[in-house]
Design a protein that fits this description.
globular; about 25% helix; Rossmann fold; alpha/beta; 8 strands; two-stranded parallel sheet; 4 helices
């Protein structure tokens, strides 16, 4: 039986890259990417009820980003600053006090992790956060890299398996990513595994 993951005064929620371009029909669609929205909204309600920080990361690329195929990168142009594709999914509960962290804005640097080239670590430390609950898109890229960076920075990390989906460029990539996260110390949970501090 999985022990419950307690949401307490040291906890924060990180919602990774739930943007239109990663949705079905977007520039870089994740299969069933839109299926993360409702589970994430449930986590958002939970964290909001506890008054705990909620962080949304987003890809915020310039039009000439190094990750795009025109520059020799692996991806089609996506999440270009100021475009509809870069906006958060319209059904995602974007609470007024949510913290938005933009990444991948340097045209010459790839940034899969929410910590890379951002002040996310500082934002969390200033709020006394030691425990992170991380989900979103995509399991095998930005979620994985954000989780691994968080672990390397000493955070206790819960991967939200019911609120994440992967790209699976190669079949099984997401499964391997989850295995790697767990091997490095993350705990894979669902919302039913959470417990609120009394």
């Amino acid at each position: 039986m999985m022990s419950l993951a307690e949401i307490d005064e040291e906890s924060a929620l990180i919602v990774v890259d739930v943007q239109n371009d990663f949705m079905p029909g977007g520039a870089l669609p994740v299969k069933d990417g839109d299926k993360v929205v409702e589970p994430l909204n449930a986590y958002i309600r939970l964290f909001k009820s506890k008054g705990r920080p909620i962080v949304f990361t987003r890809d915020w690329h310039p039009p000439n980003h190094v990750s795009f195929k025109v520059r020799g990168g692996p991806w089609p142009p996506h999440c270009v600053q100021g475009t509809k594709g870069a906006e958060f999914h319209p059904r995602l509960n974007l609470a007024h006090d949510v913290i938005v962290v933009s990444k991948g804005f340097d045209p010459e640097k790839e940034a899969y992790s929410g910590f890379e080239g951002t002040d996310l670590n500082k934002v969390l430390r200033e709020r006394g956060v030691k425990k992170l609950f991380i989900g979103g898109l995509a399991t095998d890229y930005c979620v994985k890299n954000t989780v691994l960076d968080a672990l390397s920075k000493g955070f206790l990390v819960y991967f939200l398996s019911d609120a994440s989906r992967g790209v699976d460029v190669s079949i099984g990539d997401s499964e391997k990513a989850i295995e790697e996260m767990v091997k490095r110390g993350a705990k894979s949970i669902k919302i039913s595994d959470t417990a609120s501090a009394t």
